[in-house]
Description:
Elements: H1 23-28, E1 43-46, H2 54-61, E2 65-68, H3 89-100, H4 103-106, H5 113-136
Parallel strand pairs: 1-2
Amino acid sequence: MDEHGIPLSLVVSGAERHDLKLLAPTLDRIMVKRPKPRPGKKQNLCADKGYAGEPARRAIESRAYVPHVPPKGKKGKPRARIGKHRPRRWVVERTNSWLNRFRKLLVRFEKYSRSYEGLLELACSLIVFRRIIVIYG
Length: 137
């Protein structure tokens, strides 16, 4: 998702799959056309400690992102502000809360994953529509 909490891609899998296994497919399915990578102009990708490690770093860097992943094992201390920028974990949690408001998605009763993915895409498109109205309205 972007800085406003607008979902950019989604991938459906079983509950037992670790997020790290779905990092590459999720990055490959981003629906927004990205600008071509240029020297000195890279896009940043912020992730939590679950994506720390070499496989995640390779997946992120191979797609021309600059990874911002805190190392595992260190106690979380308050992050210092860098200029006007501040940590934005709340954006992710807020968007997850928006998805949870669609009661049909809370418990998966669909037999096929493509049916559930279609419902998720519909919910994400409604979220995008509502956010565009709020941001640019």
